[in-house]
């Protein structure tokens, strides 16, 4: 086992994935080598998630498992949201953690690991300085994560929204936008590396540039990106905030070919009283009007949203309003979470009044209704052609995604035959499933 090797386990969302890859860049720059097997690593880092209870439980379980398997001389570091939120108490039942670093100072990872390596035996070190928000001094690490021909590019971190149920502002602090020139430079680097799809991520992408004094930050950024990376086929916007879909942003999505006709806009609920208790925008009429406006301006628009069921005080009637809402608006993709009680959030005084079995029942009912809607939406693509980004193959089938599918969270397109990955090819859809599509690659006819 080489002391100058490391292995990172990344848990949680795509934003954590980017942070993990950024930490890896800094460690490699400091002379460390990344290895795929934790048993062969001198340093093991777990980039934890601390957003909701189930994520915290997974983080602690992974830490406990790795700690129990530690070899003499190995160093175990807990990083990320869980450690930022709870500090030294992030995993009190897990002996064997040598270092702790929070998500606001992940860029100090090399210094932390070097310090642990220098101590013999290692003395636990905690890199948890007071920091109002995620630092802007990334030490030259790119804010990207590349997976095949697709990549995430972080445009901002932190959040200034007041959502009562959310711990992110407690964990990461207020929103900090990354400079435009750095984002464009990183996008160009991705283009040079052959990336075909860039997914723009932040806690709230539609808030991009507010802290920089930009009025239409995201719309302007998208325009600059299309000019800077003309060879990148797809630019995708994730995590938009209701009420912030400006006319300029809709126009950019409608007119710029590289900006895929896809939007992820978490709405969280559809009843004004619940939304008010969530401290979320309550104007449901705005949602109806804006969705209609977007669908008219952007033909073929794929809309994804997310809802929370079992929020404190949610009645049967209020849940029925949510069911009716998704039936009326027919979203292409829907994610559902059962409410997780989080101490320290603005929702803490509301308690956790909806029983677990009721949350589960509502979760199932909402998912079953959306499954029907998703199937009906998918059937409209049978007989049509879709461009598909291929990501793998095996057993006579290739797997990819269309513009309608964001990586990791949405459906797939299953293509007959084994076709090399990394290409974007036209596929004729011949079968629809509840969440996925099946098709055949369209080959160009040779001219006589």
Instruction: Report strand order across the widest sheet.
Output: 7-8-11-12-13-14-15
**What distance separates the N and C termini?**
62 Å
The profile of the biggest β sheet is: 7 strands, mixed
**Principal-axes shape call:** globular
**What's the number of helices?**
12
CATH architecture of the largest domain: Alpha-Beta Horseshoe
Total of domains = 3
Instruction: Let me know the average pLDDT.
Output: 94
Fraction of helical residues: 25-40%
* CATH homologous group name of the largest domain: tm_1862 like domain
- As a whole number of angstroms, the C-alpha radius of gyration is 23 Å
CATH class term of the largest domain: Alpha Beta
Low-confidence stretches: none
Short overview:
It is built from twelve helices and 20 strands.
Descriptors:
OB fold (Dihydrolipoamide Acetyltransferase, E2P), 33% helix, alpha/beta, 24% strand, single chain, 3 domains, pyruvate-formate lyase- activating enzyme, 448 residues, Rossmann fold
């Amino acid at each position: 086992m080489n002391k100058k090797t490391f292995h990172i386990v990344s848990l949680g969302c795509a934003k954590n994935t980017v942070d993990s890859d950024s930490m890896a860049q800094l460690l490699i720059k400091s002379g460390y080598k990344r290895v795929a097997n934790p048993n062969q690593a001198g340093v093991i880092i777990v980039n934890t998630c601390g957003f909701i209870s189930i994520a915290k439980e997974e983080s602690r379980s992974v830490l406990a498992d790795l700690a129990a398997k530690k070899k003499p001389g190995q160093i175990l570091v807990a990083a990320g949201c869980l450690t930022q939120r709870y500090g030294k108490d992030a995993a009190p039942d897990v002996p064997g953690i040598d270092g702790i670093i929070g998500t606001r100072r992940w860029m100090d990872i090399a210094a932390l690991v070097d310090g642990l390596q220098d101590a013999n035996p290692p003395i636990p070190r905690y890199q948890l300085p007071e920091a109002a928000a995620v630092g802007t001094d990334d030490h030259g690490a790119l804010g990207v994560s590349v997976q095949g021909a697709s990549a995430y590019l972080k445009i901002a971190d932190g959040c200034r929204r007041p959502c009562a149920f959310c711990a992110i502002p407690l964990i990461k602090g207020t929103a900090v936008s990354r400079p435009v020139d750095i984002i464009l430079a990183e996008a160009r680097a991705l283009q040079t590396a052959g990336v075909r799809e860039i997914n723009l991520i932040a806690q709230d992408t539609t808030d991009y540039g507010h802290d920089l004094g930009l009025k239409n930050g995201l719309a302007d950024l998208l325009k600059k990106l299309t000019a800077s990376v003309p060879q990148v086929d797809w630019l995708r916007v994730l995590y938009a905030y209701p009420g912030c879909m400006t006319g300029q942003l809709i126009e950019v999505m409608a007119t710029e070919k590289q900006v895929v006709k896809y939007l992820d806009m978490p709405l969280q609920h559809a009843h004004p009283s619940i939304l008010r208790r969530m401290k979320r925008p309550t104007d449901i009429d705005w949602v109806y009007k804006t969705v209609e406006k977007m669908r008219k301006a952007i033909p073929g628009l794929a809309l994804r949203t997310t809802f929370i069921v079992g929020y404190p005080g949610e009645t049967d009637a209020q849940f029925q309003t949510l069911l009716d809402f998704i039936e009326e608006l027919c979203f292409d993709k829907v994610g559902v979470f059962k409410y997780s009680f989080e101490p320290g959030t603005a929702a803490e005084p509301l308690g956790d009044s909806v029983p677990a079995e009721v949350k589960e029942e509502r979760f199932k009912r909402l998912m079953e209704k959306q499954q029907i809607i998703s199937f009906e939406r998918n059937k409209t693509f049978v007989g049509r052609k879709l461009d598909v980004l291929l990501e793998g193959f095996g057993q006579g089938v290739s797997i990819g995604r269309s513009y309608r599918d964001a990586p990791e969270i949405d459906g797939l397109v299953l293509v007959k035959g084994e076709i090399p990955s990394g290409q974007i090819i036209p596929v004729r859809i011949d079968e629809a499933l509840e969440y996925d599509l099946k098709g055949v690659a369209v080959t160009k006819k040779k001219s006589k």
